[in-house]
Amino acid sequence: MNLSLAFLNGVDPWIFGFSFVTVAITVWLGFRSAKSSKTAGDFFVAGRSVSVGWNASAISGEYLSAASFMGIAGMVMAVGYDALWYPVCYACGYLFLLLFIAGPLRRFGAYTIPDFAEGRYDSPVFRKIAVVFVMFIGLFYTLPQMKGAGTTLAYIFPGLPYWVGVALVGAVITLNVALGGMKGITLVQAMQYWMKMFAISVPVFVLMAVFGGYGKNLNANNPTLADAMNPVAIEQSAEVIRQPLPDKAPKDHDWVSPFGRLTTKAAKAAGLSEAESRPLSLVYTYSLIIALVCGTAGLPHILVRFYTNPDGVAAKRTTMWVMILIGIFYVFPPFLGVLGRNFLPELYAATGAKGTDKIVLELPSIIRQHYGVWGSILSGIACAGAFAAFMSTFSGLLVSMTGALAHDVYGRMLKPDATPEQRMRMFKLAAILVGGVCVLMGSQVEQLQINFMVGQAFAIAAASYFPLLFMSVWWRGMTMKGAATGMLGGGLAALACTTIINLSDLKIIEMKSFWVSHPVVRILCEQPAIWCVPLSIGLMIVVSKATSKDVPKDIRMKMLVLHAPEALGLKNEYIKEHHVGVGH
Amino acid sequence: MPPSSTRDDTVHSEAFLSSLMRRQLRLSIACAAAFLVALLGLPLANYFAPDLMATRVGGFTLTWLILGVLFFPYVWLISGYFIKRSLQLEADEAREVASK
User: Fold this and answer.
1) A35 pLDDT above the threshold of 70
2) Strand-pair partners of B57
């Protein structure tokens, strides 16, 4: 009793210690590498020579964000099976990237998506349009990282308000990025992948040894074993003795079956029967899958990493390793969600930073009653992993967004003749500006689920950059006007939908009665990918056909550079003919 | 090796580009199909055969086992196959041009 009270009042030294060391190492590495990165090129793509192993770890490190580390477990605990689509599609989206986009883009050799947009259509105007979505997607993806930061700090310092955590972490990372740039980030993020892997797997193995395996714990939520009248019987027959569930927790059947809490929410709110709501749940599920799988391929901070490989073969090998590294990782968080349901059900009753999103952090501490201080140490390790998660992803996003501002808006539009020193100064200024905006917005989203917010960023990417990249790589008939119309049409529609959903869920605008009477609209707004992605591709085809005289004249050469093996050396040929075009 | 003019003509011919893109796209689509059948089929299986998918296998429901665990190795297999074949394809293409 004393222990638990002390924990509520004060700060656990072990948890604090591990977190502090993580932050200190990250910052130190950032400062150290700042000394060795001098030119603007170093800042943007780390001099283009990172080995496969390092790069795969770094991509994975950047990709495994607060959503993967904390959000999935929290969401599995909160809604059950429906949340499993997230980890699977986060991992599988990479396959799409590999199959259709990674190789050609790498051969084309541009720094960023806006670089590609400009080079593919010989249009500086299109660059200005394309760069907008780096900011939109980046901001949406940053919000959940900020919630992760606020939640973790509120866990470590129980008395601290949510927004202080957001501000603190935001300031540290912004400073780090402003001083180190991407070169520092490669090293730091590769290391952070392994830290996250360690921080999620070690608590899982320890908890497994104490409370039993994945299957056994899942079996504790078995509605067929359950005799609703006699809860004692459930617990005995399932072998795992779980804590009693509070009223707010979903029932076993809802939780363990497909089409449960998440996908039927809108239909239930509207009072539809189960038979009526099932088709809607199917639509919800498919829309979610499309958003996550296509969205991965359109994330600006992930794509830029493919250019840091020495060649296309290495880029492909890197993707393979990324899939293995993140695939292994994603088996663990859902298991923690299951354990959370069985052993810390009191989190169901709380909301915001004190709700299920902190399950990964708090769960390891429950072995305290068996093994004393080891519970705190394990919880400290989990917190260190959480820091690694949101710090690495936020850094990557900040580099992308800052790069877009400094490299595209300033370096190409506002002041093309800027000196390297001016560019560097602008990079730092932009980092501070963007970091500040992220902190301000992040402090507002405490009530939204981490994982849900990341899904929204994916939906926007899926409806804007994914169609742009996919169609530009594989269809010769695309024109700049077609590409721009499709990207803006689909992307802005998805952006508008997700913004409305967030504003209404945060109760900034009042739409509850509208959603109740229009459950289908709610679903299509909450998961817009199922109509926004086809809308975007359709617009691209129609407008490109209508403006087919504008297809770039050297389209065959462009397509050759995109598709011919690098061994043929076409890129150099292309750059010689084409002084202004792509990259540098 | 300086590029010969026949090599240049081959590389820049319409036939070379369309065969290049067709072969690459065919491989990508075949791999994507293997993946999409599983990914898009699972919700349908959940929808039309809920009892089958709720069968307990080692404590997991069948659908949880597939989605939460087995899906990852399946995707590794597809991507491993794709990478092997696409590297072969590139080597073939480069050799074809060199032999012209």
Assistant:
1) no
2) B60
A257 touches B: beta carbon within 8 Å: yes
Q: Where are the alpha helices (DSSP H) in A307-363?
A: 312-343, 359-362
Q: Judged by CB atoms within 8 Å, which residues 325-344 of A form the interface with B?
A: 327-328, 330-331, 334
Please tell me if residue B56 touches chain A, with a CB cutoff of 8 Å: yes
pLDDT tens digits, residue range A83-126?
Answer: 999 999 988 888 888 889 888 887 887 667 888 888 899 888 88
pLDDT at A584: 38
Residue A86 touches chain B, beta carbons under 8 Å? no
pTM of the model: 0.89
- Single out the residue of A227, A10, A568 nearest to residue B94, CA to CA: A568
The complex's ipTM works out to 0.90
Place of tokens 């935001």: A170
Q: Closest Cα of chain A to B60: distance in Å?
A: 5
C-beta atoms of B94 and A327 within 8 A: no
Residue A294 and residue A93 in contact, taking contact as beta carbons nearer than 8 Å? yes
Across A129-138, A185-194, A305-314, A569-578, the highest mean pLDDT is recorded for A129-138
Q: d(Cα A520, Cα A523) in Å, to the nearest integer?
A: 5
Name chain A contacts of B56, Cβ cutoff 8 Å.
219, 222, 224
B88 touches chain A (CB under 8 A): no
Q: How far apart are CA A552 and CA A555, in angstroms?
A: 5
B33 and chain A in contact, CB less than 8 A: no
> DSSP character for B56?
E
**Helix A113-121 × helix A124-156 angle, to 10°:** 170
Which of B14, B43, B79 lies closest to A323 in CB terms? B79
Looking at residue A37, its pLDDT comes to 54
pLDDT band at A492 (very low <50, low <70, confident <90, very high): very high
Q: What is the percent of chain A with per-residue pLDDT over 70, rounded to a whole number?
A: 87
Sequence-ordered list of residues with C-beta below 8 angstroms from that of A11, at least 6 positions apart, any chain: A156, A157, A158
Confidence check: pLDDT of A131 > 60: yes
pLDDT digits (tens, 9 = 90+) for B24-59: 999 999 999 999 999 999 999 999 998 888 888 888
Task: Give the chain B residue nearest A84 (alpha carbons).
Answer: B68
Residues in chain A with CB shorter than 8 Å from the CB of B82 are 98-99
Tokens of A507: 């109760």
Q: Which of A303, A495, A470 is nearest to A396 (CA)?
A: A303
Residue A252, beta-bridge partner list: none
Tokens of A99: 């199959």
